[in-house]
Amino acid sequence: MAAAHHNSFKARKTLKVGSRSYTYFSLKAVEKEVGDLSRLPFSLRVLLENLLRHEDGTTVKKTDIGRISRLAEERRQIGQGDQFPARPAS
Fold first, then answer.
1. How many CA atoms lie less than 13 Å away from 31 in the CB half-sphere?
2. Phi, psi for 71 (deg, rounded to 5)
3. Cβ distance 36 to 72 under 8 Å?
4. What span, in angstroms and rounded, lies between the C-alpha atoms of 50 and 53?
């Protein structure tokens, strides 16, 4: 039996197209609670959406989702140009 979905960020939405309905998890809804996620790389946004879909309070908790969300804040603090160590010229 599947565990109940917590939907802590109220991100679960329904899109109706014609006579069909589709469920998706909105990152815009998460942004209302955690702030701007636009600085997250696409791959981390996909991971974040996956965590939202599987949030059950046991395997995936709200705090797990929050950790990924905080990476966006860390990227804002670092700035646009990430630092990479360079090898000195010989």
1. 10
2. -60, -30
3. yes
4. 5
16 DSSP 8-state letter: E
Q: What is the pLDDT along the chain (90 residues), one digit of tens a residue?
A: 455 678 999 999 999 999 999 999 999 999 998 888 888 889 989 999 999 999 999 999 999 898 888 877 776 565 555 555 667 666
Q: Fill in the DSSP letter of residue 57.
A: S
What is the radius of gyration, based on Cα positions, of the chain?
17
Is 12:5 a contact under the CB 8 Å cutoff? yes
Q: What is the pTM of this model?
A: 0.71
CA distance 35 to 66: 11
Tell me the β-bridge partners of 14. Answer: 23
Please give the C-alpha separations between residue 35 and each of 60, 66, 73, 79, in angstroms, as whole numbers: 20, 11, 8, 16
